[in-house]
Amino acid sequence: MPLTDLPYEDLLEYRPEPAAPEGLDAFWADTLARARALGGEPSVTPVADALLPAFEVSDVRFPGYGGEPVAGWLLVPRGAAGPLPAVVEYLGYSQGRGLPLERLLFPSAGYAYLVMDTRGQGHDTPDPHPGDPQWFAGLMTRGVESPERYYYRRLYTDAVRAVDFVRGLPQVDADRVVVAGASQGGGLALATAALADGLVAAALVDVPFLQHFRRAVEIAGVGPYPEIAEYLGLHSREQVERTFATLAHFDGLHLASRASAPALFSVGLMDPVCPPSTVFASYHRYAGHKDIEVWRFADHAGGRSSQQRRQLEWLRDRGLGAKA
């Protein structure tokens, strides 16, 4: 696969500086305050899984956007002395929480671990907002006519509320909660680090989606961004600008400057789904301490297991590793 974007040397200097939408901070402060005010009791139901004897596995539900229940799996190393550092992981586009045995890396490394189901994408968390207009099979245009109704307003809120939930668990050290994810999950991790600034100890942001929307929609050849391009191709110039005005409220390019937790990014220079320039654009604007792993010959899979090992080392070096 060839390079899909700018040469590496140009990526190091790629620093677009578009203005954030007016009222961005107030929009998110109001959104999250409303979700938290609705409250709702989480549930943690132990699951007996004889195939995973090394872990305590629980099926959880916590209140997300609108107080609506969001599913997840909670895995804790059996017999571990708490409080433990925790990892909250968000998933890629069209993925749900799956089965617990698919998500063993972080609990195997000694972390309390929550994987959040993705509303409207996983099997266990519906998105009960059928009135929102949607033009394609995917979710990128659902409610895109306004920030208030856009699908990702609900998903970003779920992601922040997942951190609220984990910080309240008795097994967890609330000062050592890490957010993580790849692709869409990486975009959610970055957004959560910004929107829950002060509540997140670190962010693992792999090949992130939902960055620098305008450029991504123009150059991404495959993946979810073309859903937006196809939609825009059917509408007037006025609708184009209104769409990008909505997307700006969810763009990691604007949210990155609002995050102070240390972050480890990764990027594949042959990624056709999340173009490298969009990743570097947000990376350069990220306000906290940041590092980036550049995989020169990787596509959207990034560094695979090598990146996972790097994540564990990076967390350990920052005092966020689990005790042996």
UniProtKB/TrEMBL annotation:
> What Gene3D superfamilies does the record point to?
alpha/beta hydrolase
Which parts of the sequence belong to the Acetyl xylan esterase domain?
A: 1-317
Q: Which InterPro entries match?
A: AB_hydrolase_fold (IPR029058), AXE1_dom (IPR008391), CE7 (IPR039069)
Instruction: Write down what this protein is called.
Output: Acetylxylan esterase
